[in-house]
Amino acid sequence: MSLLTVGSVAFDALETPFGKTDKIIGGAATYITLSASYFTKKNNLVAVVGGDFPQEMVDLLIEHGVNTEGLKTIPDGKTFFWSGRYHEDMNTRDTLETQLNVMADFDPVIPESYQTTEYLMLGNTVPATQKAVIERMVKRPKLIMLDTMNLWMNIAMDDLKDVLTLVDVLTINDEEARQLSGDYSLRKAAQTIMAMGPKTLIIKKGEHGALLFQGDRIFFAPALPLEVVFDPTGAGDCFAGGFIGYLAKTDDISFENMKRAIIYGSAMASFCVEKFGTERVVNLTQEEIDARVQEFVKLSSFEIV
Amino acid sequence: MSLLTVGSVAFDALETPFGKTDKIIGGAATYITLSASYFTKKNNLVAVVGGDFPQEMVDLLIEHGVNTEGLKTIPDGKTFFWSGRYHEDMNTRDTLETQLNVMADFDPVIPESYQTTEYLMLGNTVPATQKAVIERMVKRPKLIMLDTMNLWMNIAMDDLKDVLTLVDVLTINDEEARQLSGDYSLRKAAQTIMAMGPKTLIIKKGEHGALLFQGDRIFFAPALPLEVVFDPTGAGDCFAGGFIGYLAKTDDISFENMKRAIIYGSAMASFCVEKFGTERVVNLTQEEIDARVQEFVKLSSFEIV
User: Fold this and answer.
1) Labelling B251: which of A31, A193, A245, B125 has CA 20 to 30 A away?
2) Contact: B208, A208; criterion CB under 8 Å
3) What residue ranges define each of the domains in chain A, with the CATH number in brackets?
4) Which positions fall inside the Carbohydrate kinase PfkB domain (chains A, B) (predicted)?
5) A185 near B CB under 8 A
6) CA pair distance B44, B137, nearest whole angstrom
């Protein structure tokens, strides 16, 4: 089945304890589509970049089977830019600079050829923009998944709650789940948030794994303990891309299949952090992904006798 | 098989966001033996209390099948006392008061009848005391497990490293693993720590579960997401008691069986936090434990197709 991803395509400049980069390709939609490209070949992108965005980066997406018909270039605009510095623990970071540039007026246009897309992934961006995308789909996709962050809870909570009534799956981290719900217990938080709209909730806990909630059902997916976390940028987006990419590939949105999708998403995230930026996720083989998934199986399987 | 637990039997006074207690029974060895009592009936205790320790609390242990021959009472001494206050997040706490009392001169004597014990659990206490226990066992137990804490890393690191060369299983939390090893990555930390002696390492991560390391093998056990954590006191000890109690019951120290033991330990810890102090772990049925273990199975099982 086909996937439509809407979100940012950007330049990032990163500093980690292991080194720093110049401007490299980044953005939620970039990581999501690259990650999903290992699962579905019908991989539609809607995003906006400036005239400074190099053609070879567009080509990189195309090489990965991403349909860039919906990637709009504003010739006299500049591409969204973010720079950040990770702390020693790699779990916290400071934003050094954010230039919204062409993202400030991002008005997503859905190409005619995208209108029959079955799976819709709304990358982290302005909630009102996410809502506009849903409204512009002539036919409601089979599954709509949304990622967001604490920023929107601080400055656009009403808009966020509004779009949440329209989505099937929400993915946020544990801190955001607590902020959105006002509950400390993640189990309670999940019930509060699912009552806001999404029937399925994924709470990401970084190195501590992820929780999948749906009704009364809970699934806990481990994170792979890694020797080195080189750069956490994009891990959450690779996770989301792997998750929804796997659902689109299998076209099965049962809870059992979502459990598998979370494992594939976790595997993609575990690759992502091994190198700077998109370096690792642009160079993966199916064999590597399958082997990594088997590591997750070994990591978490046990048998009660 | 039989289990010998050496450690503190104490009074605790606790404050949590849900309320506060007067002096209630606590101490590492108390929680460990109570938890283990659901798995093994040969449950030997070595500890020391003062003349202020009420007989009904000793009777409570005896009712749970704990052999208290090694529980020494110093009539003119006072029982170890700890009081603490948990913060809103329930993950951090302040120690309000510590009175070592009779624990200050704790010199563990191993009764003759305990000398054939196959499984030895050294609860968190002075590393030199833990070492003395091992030296006083005429025959080396089949498995020696040790719990410790950051305090001993700060004030008795050499003694701790000394006793670590003698044990089979070490259990510590993630922060302590990082402190002991000097490595941030838990995967690296585990290798560093296992090189210090223990062939098996359990890293406890509280609400984020636990990791079991042995050689190149890793197992990740989830924690059950709970509606309410009422009082975390003793959770780590109930975990240890369930783990080693299960090993003693089954007398199987293979990695596969240790994975099961971790799940039983996690189940015991999940009960412990539901009420104040030992209230929940003194009132469990086998059916409740089995049902809780099945919740862990449901929580973490998936199938890759």
Assistant:
1) B125
2) yes
3) 3-300 (3.40.1190.20)
4) 21-279
5) yes
6) 13
